[in-house]
């Protein structure tokens, strides 16, 4: 086919080229003939002009002859010049064979002018009228010769023109014949080409086109004819291959569509697709059922045509937002029958990113929400149950622990003290179990929140170590804490939770370590603080380390039987650290020990940190400690005060007398008794502030162990003359809080429920109210609300909640009804002291030293001491009488040297001794001196006199 087309086209081209060549040749001949004819015409015109010029010249000559020189000479000259130009023009348009004769004409003209006309001008030839005819005849003869030549030329020119005209006619005839023959040949060839194209190209292509139309109408099994040749045949074959591929893909698409339709019809989710005009193009059965449009014609219709008008704007706005969004949009929607669907709506985009539709999928979450609500209710019920159980357990625990602490403050035999200590320890252990269960429950329920505040990080670490120190020492373990100097001391975070995690890790370390040491290391880790608790205990197998942070899990059951415990400590610690943005890492090897480390980020403290305790400038301290780690820790503590420090493993290393004080390992105390400089014995873990204060007191010569009442009684002066009201229904708890407040020098009144408290408040003014939350008749919440809403003077009194509940929300509930603070049972002495310090009014300024004091002793305090100590109270008063005069003398000496710091410390020691025995007035006087940090002679004399009066009153009490 391809060769036939090329041959046919080539023949047509050859015919056309031949025709064009013939036409061009004929045209060239015609052009040549035409040029010759045009040249002959120009020659004839120029010849005629020359003849006219000669005639004009002859006419002038005759005029000149007749007029004998009176003709215009200028006309003659112009005629000569014009004739010359015409002859030149005639020569230019003549053929080469004509030019010799034309040159002869030029010669004759020149001779005529020179030999005939010029003499006439000079009047040399014609002398008289008789000569004129002869001159005229001469001129005529000469003109006849020139005309003869010109006529001869013209005759030959006419013959030539006639011949060329005949040639032109012949060429025109030939040109017509060539054009006709070429046109007829080209038409014949084109006809042959057209027939071949129709037969071998158009018919097969039309067949392909017809087949394409059938395929377009959906008949993918139709095939095109392949009867053509060459490219046409290949076109048909390519079309058939394409149709076969389309048929295969259509079948695959049908199968996939059937599968998709099956999935859509059997999925639990609703599916719908809309175009940009909001018309539905695809929905499944579930969508129809959920929309209550099972039998409706949905496809091609919009929301406005299918749903109530009040729903349409919201849906349209949702579609618009989805088309603009780059991510799927999720939301919940309630439908007509009350069910709730979780919807996911997203835009459908083409490969260029243009949106062409909106797809929506919905899942019925009604049952899930019901189950979730039931789970939340169950969790809340569990939390409520745990809160109630906690309250029921904490209430008797408060009595057990509180009474045990009060019992330990009395004079007991060693066996009795051992029994009381064991009971207190058991109560604390039970309380810890309750706290662990509650914490884990709160974590599971997502109700545990961090309570951030500014705190001293070093003190928090030392508190945790102090709590575990007795247990560690009883096992012969060394418990130590090391905090790098670049770690910030004062930070903002949840002090209680940090301490709780450290206690849990330390407790495990001490529990699972039989020999060696437990070390707490605190270092700066970039923007975090890293804590590490390392022990030399039994270690943990690698295959069980991953389960340590699961609830109620320990390394193995034998460990549980041997060491006990609930297995909640690490689980709680891990989740607490996670709440603070960290995680606990484990590095442990069986038989070598373990290291538990975690890093948390603290915020910068916003309040001013306490003023650090320092030693006088230039102080030199010697640290004597056999253990290298302890020696480094002690050296760091002392060096932080600005003192110069040396550390040695034994006393024999350096001369002791060169130092202001010696920090000595308590196990080396026998060696230190012979030392002449002050000695501060230490036994780990060492608290920084306590060590520095002990060093300062030792250097100043202040005795740190002034005699006093039993050690556990706090040194606290009463801060108000008004009594404190305790609203508590449990008799044991009443006795505990009453005793704790009396120990602190306060008068206490008891109300056994909220209604009784309201009656008492109507009659008496109180300095502070401690309010239990759960009581019969009227609980603490209702009582507080009534106090805040009433017109009683107690409306502005501070109210501190006391509750055995420990679930999140209790504190918020107490504060919401108007309470000012919140304490959990069992009441801790330090928490109670903090509440008293915060909410009681400032102490009244004492009267001048010379003024009489209204009350020398606190009768309630003295009565409590007499009840507790019995006959030993007299010995206690005698001890007070003999130990106080040296303190007064020391105070007088400090005042004489104007040592303000020493005055403050000695006055503080005197205040504590007075408060312990109920010497209220003397304690207030000592408090004034402590604040003033100086004492005049009159004040010291009044102080001596007041001591004598107080001692007498105590002896008589």
Automatic annotation (TrEMBL):
<dbReference type="InterPro" id="IPR005467">
    <property type="entry name" value="His_kinase_dom"/>
</dbReference>
<protein>
    <recommendedName>
        <fullName>Circadian input-output histidine kinase CikA</fullName>
        <ecNumber>2.7.13.3</ecNumber>
    </recommendedName>
</protein>
<keyword id="KW-0808">Transferase</keyword>
<dbReference type="InterPro" id="IPR036890">
    <property type="entry name" value="HATPase_C_sf"/>
</dbReference>
<dbReference type="Pfam" id="PF00072">
    <property type="entry name" value="Response_reg"/>
</dbReference>
<keyword id="KW-1133">Transmembrane helix</keyword>
<dbReference type="Pfam" id="PF00512">
    <property type="entry name" value="HisKA"/>
</dbReference>
<dbReference type="GO" id="GO:0005886">
    <property type="term" value="C:plasma membrane"/>
</dbReference>
<dbReference type="InterPro" id="IPR001789">
    <property type="entry name" value="Sig_transdc_resp-reg_receiver"/>
</dbReference>
<comment type="subunit">
    <text>At low DSF concentrations, interacts with RpfF.</text>
</comment>
<dbReference type="InterPro" id="IPR011006">
    <property type="entry name" value="CheY-like_superfamily"/>
</dbReference>
<dbReference type="InterPro" id="IPR036097">
    <property type="entry name" value="HisK_dim/P_sf"/>
</dbReference>
<dbReference type="InterPro" id="IPR004358">
    <property type="entry name" value="Sig_transdc_His_kin-like_C"/>
</dbReference>
<feature type="domain" description="HPt">
    <location>
        <begin position="869"/>
        <end position="957"/>
    </location>
</feature>
<dbReference type="InterPro" id="IPR003594">
    <property type="entry name" value="HATPase_dom"/>
</dbReference>
<dbReference type="InterPro" id="IPR035965">
    <property type="entry name" value="PAS-like_dom_sf"/>
</dbReference>
<keyword id="KW-0067">ATP-binding</keyword>
<comment type="similarity">
    <text>In the N-terminal section; belongs to the phytochrome family.</text>
</comment>
<feature type="modified residue" description="4-aspartylphosphate">
    <location>
        <position position="772"/>
    </location>
</feature>
<dbReference type="Pfam" id="PF00672">
    <property type="entry name" value="HAMP"/>
</dbReference>
<feature type="modified residue" description="Phosphohistidine">
    <location>
        <position position="908"/>
    </location>
</feature>
<dbReference type="InterPro" id="IPR013656">
    <property type="entry name" value="PAS_4"/>
</dbReference>
<dbReference type="InterPro" id="IPR003660">
    <property type="entry name" value="HAMP_dom"/>
</dbReference>
<dbReference type="InterPro" id="IPR036641">
    <property type="entry name" value="HPT_dom_sf"/>
</dbReference>
<feature type="transmembrane region" description="Helical">
    <location>
        <begin position="6"/>
        <end position="27"/>
    </location>
</feature>
<dbReference type="GO" id="GO:0005524">
    <property type="term" value="F:ATP binding"/>
</dbReference>
<dbReference type="InterPro" id="IPR003661">
    <property type="entry name" value="HisK_dim/P_dom"/>
</dbReference>
<dbReference type="InterPro" id="IPR000014">
    <property type="entry name" value="PAS"/>
</dbReference>
<dbReference type="GO" id="GO:0000155">
    <property type="term" value="F:phosphorelay sensor kinase activity"/>
</dbReference>
<feature type="domain" description="HAMP">
    <location>
        <begin position="199"/>
        <end position="251"/>
    </location>
</feature>
<keyword id="KW-0597">Phosphoprotein</keyword>
<feature type="domain" description="Histidine kinase">
    <location>
        <begin position="388"/>
        <end position="604"/>
    </location>
</feature>
<dbReference type="Pfam" id="PF02518">
    <property type="entry name" value="HATPase_c"/>
</dbReference>
<dbReference type="Pfam" id="PF08448">
    <property type="entry name" value="PAS_4"/>
</dbReference>
<dbReference type="Pfam" id="PF01627">
    <property type="entry name" value="Hpt"/>
</dbReference>
<keyword id="KW-0547">Nucleotide-binding</keyword>
<feature type="domain" description="Response regulatory">
    <location>
        <begin position="723"/>
        <end position="840"/>
    </location>
</feature>
<dbReference type="InterPro" id="IPR008207">
    <property type="entry name" value="Sig_transdc_His_kin_Hpt_dom"/>
</dbReference>
<keyword id="KW-0812">Transmembrane</keyword>
<keyword id="KW-0902">Two-component regulatory system</keyword>
<keyword id="KW-0472">Membrane</keyword>
<keyword id="KW-0418">Kinase</keyword>
């Amino acid at each position: 086919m391809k060769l036939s087309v090329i041959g046919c086209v080539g023949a047509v081209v050859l015919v056309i080229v031949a025709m064009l060549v013939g036409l061009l040749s004929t045209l060239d001949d015609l052009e040549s003939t035409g040029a010759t004819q045009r040249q002959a015409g120009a020659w004839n015109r120029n010849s005629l002009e020359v003849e006219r010029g000669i005639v004009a010249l002859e006419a002038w000559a005759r005029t000149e002859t007749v007029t004998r020189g009176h003709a215009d000479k200028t006309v003659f000259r112009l005629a000569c010049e014009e004739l010359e130009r015409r002859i030149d023009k005639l020569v230019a348009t003549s053929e080469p064979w004509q030019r010799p004769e034309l040159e002869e004409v030029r010669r004759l003209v020149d001779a005529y002018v020179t030999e005939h006309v010029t003499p006439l001008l000079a009047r040399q030839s014609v002398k008289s009228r008789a000569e004129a005819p002869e001159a005229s005849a001469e001129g005529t003869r000469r003109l006849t010769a020139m005309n003869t030549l010109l006529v001869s030329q013209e005759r030959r020119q006419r013959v030539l023109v006639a011949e060329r005209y005949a040639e032109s006619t012949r060429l025109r005839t030939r040109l017509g014949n060539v054009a006709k023959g070429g046109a007829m040949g080209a038409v014949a060839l084109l006809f042959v080409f057209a027939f071949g194209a129709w037969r071998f190209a158009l018919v097969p292509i039309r067949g392909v086109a017809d087949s394409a139309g059938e395929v377009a109408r959906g008949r993918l099994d139709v095939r095109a004819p392949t009867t053509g040749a060459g490219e046409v045949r290949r076109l048909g074959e390519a079309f058939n291959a394409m149709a076969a591929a389309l048929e295969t893909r259509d079948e695959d698409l049908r199968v996939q569509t059937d599968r998709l339709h099956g999935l859509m019809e059997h999925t639990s989710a609703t599916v719908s697709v809309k175009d940009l005009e909001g018309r539905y193009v695809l929905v499944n059965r579930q969508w129809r059922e959920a929309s209550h449009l099972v039998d409706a014609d949905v496809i091609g219709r919009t929301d406005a045509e299918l749903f109530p008008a009040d729903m349409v704007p919201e849906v349209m706005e949702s579609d618009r937002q989805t088309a603009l969004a780059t991510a799927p949009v999720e939301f919940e929607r309630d439908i007509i029958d009350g069910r709730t669907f979780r919807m996911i709506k997203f835009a459908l985009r083409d490969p260029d990113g243009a949106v062409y539709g909106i797809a929506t999928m919905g899942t019925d979450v009604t049952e899930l929400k019901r189950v979730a609500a039931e789970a939340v209710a169950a969790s809340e019920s569990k939390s409520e149950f745990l809160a109630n159980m906690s309250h029921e357990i904490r209430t008797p625990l408060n009595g057990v622990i509180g009474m045990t602490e009060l019992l330990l403050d009395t004079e007991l035999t060693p066996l009795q003290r051992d029994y009381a200590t064991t009971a207190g320890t058991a109560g604390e252990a039970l309380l810890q179990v309750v706290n662990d269960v509650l914490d884990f429950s709160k974590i599971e329920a997502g109700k545990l929140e961090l309570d951030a505040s500014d705190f001293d990080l070093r003190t928090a670490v030392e508190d945790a170590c102090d709590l575990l120190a007795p247990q560690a020492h009883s096992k012969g373990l060394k418990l130590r804490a090391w905090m790098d100097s670049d770690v910030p001391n004062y930070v903002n975070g949840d002090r209680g939770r940090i301490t709780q995690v450290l206690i849990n890790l330390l407790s495990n370390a001490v529990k699972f370590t039989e020999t060696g040491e437990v070390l707490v290391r605190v270092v700066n880790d970039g923007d975090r603080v890293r804590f590490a608790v390392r022990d030399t205990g039994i270690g943990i197998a690698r295959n069980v380390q991953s389960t340590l942070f699961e609830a109620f899990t320990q390394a193995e059951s034998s460990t549980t039987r041997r060491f006990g415990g609930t297995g909640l400590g690490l689980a709680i610690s891990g989740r607490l650290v996670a709440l603070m943005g960290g995680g606990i890492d484990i590095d442990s090897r069986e038989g070598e020990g373990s290291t538990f480390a975690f890093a948390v980020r603290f915020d910068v403290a916003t309040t001013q940190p306490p003023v650090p305790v320092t030693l006088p400038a230039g102080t030199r301290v010697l640290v004597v400690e056999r253990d290298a780690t302890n020696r480094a820790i002690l050296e760091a503590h002392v060096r932080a005060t600005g003192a110069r420090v040396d550390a040695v493993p034994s006393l024999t290393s350096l001369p002791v007398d060169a130092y202001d004080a010696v920090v000595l390992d308590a196990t080396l105390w026998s060696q230190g008794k012979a030392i002449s400089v002050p000695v501060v014995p230490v036994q780990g873990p060492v608290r920084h502030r306590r060590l520095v204060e002990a060093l300062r007191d030792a250097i100043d010569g202040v005795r740190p162990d002034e005699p006093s009442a039993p050690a556990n009684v706090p040194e606290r002066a009463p801060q108000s003359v008004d009594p404190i009201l305790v609203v508590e229904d449990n008799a044991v708890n009443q006795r505990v809080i009453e005793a704790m407040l009396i120990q602190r020098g306060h008068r206490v009144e008891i109300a056994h429920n909220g209604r009784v408290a309201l009656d008492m408040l109507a009659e008496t003014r109180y300095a502070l109210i401690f309010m239990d939350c759960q009581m019969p008749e009227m609980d603490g919440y209702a009582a507080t609300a009534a106090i805040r809403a009433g017109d009683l003077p107690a409306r502005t009194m501070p109210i501190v909640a006391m509750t055995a509940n420990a679930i999140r929300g209790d504190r918020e509930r107490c504060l919401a009804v108007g309470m000012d603070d919140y304490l959990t049972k069992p009441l801790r002495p330090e928490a109670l002291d903090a509440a008293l310090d915060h909410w009681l009014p400032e102490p009244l300024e004492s009267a001048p030293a010379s003024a009489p004091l209204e009350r020398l002793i606190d009768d309630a305090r003295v009565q409590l001491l007499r009840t507790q100590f019995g006959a030993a109270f007299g010995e206690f008063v005698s001890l007070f009488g003999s130990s106080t005069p040296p303190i007064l003398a020391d105070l007088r000496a400090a005042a004489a040297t104007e040592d303000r710091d020493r005055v403050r410390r000695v006055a503080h020691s005197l205040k504590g001794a007075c408060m312990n025995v109920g010497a209220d007035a003397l304690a207030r006087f000592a408090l004034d001196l402590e604040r003033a940090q100086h004492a005049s002679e009159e004040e010291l004399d009044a102080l001596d006199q007041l001591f004598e009066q107080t001692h007498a009153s105590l002896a008589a009490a």
